[in-house]
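Hey, resending since the last one bounced:
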Amino acid sequence: MALSNERRIGRHAIMLLLSDDSEQELATLKQSNWNGCTGKVGSMEAHKVVAAIETAAKKNGIIQPNIYRETHALYHAIIEALHGVTRGQVQLGSVHRTVGLSFAVLRGNPYENELEGDWIAVSLYGTIGAPVKGSEHEAIGLGINHI
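The structure tokens again:
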């Protein structure tokens, strides 16, 4: 069950997120049977961040909307990534915080053995802070879950 160095899903999700050319990065990942998407979301409400990422993943065919375990795996990866951005307290508006985030969702098999199946990674990068322009700082988060 060796984790292949070339197939580290978290690293690839972060590289996709921070890439200056995400379309080229996605094309390269697709050659390895990986599927991904990128997007942006800003909100004072965590559920809106979750909904934006989930919608993008469904719209881009990363997960099948009618398969519960796929939506469930994505949800847990999103929440784990939000924990990184919010420093462990997934609260935004209720504590006067807002986020402006770019996100990447990546699905693939990070193992040498194909029988290990697919995993999903969500990476987030952007700003978090008081809902006043200039009162924010950078943050990054990563969540990985098996499907």
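The longest helix spans residues 68-85.

Sorry for the duplicate.
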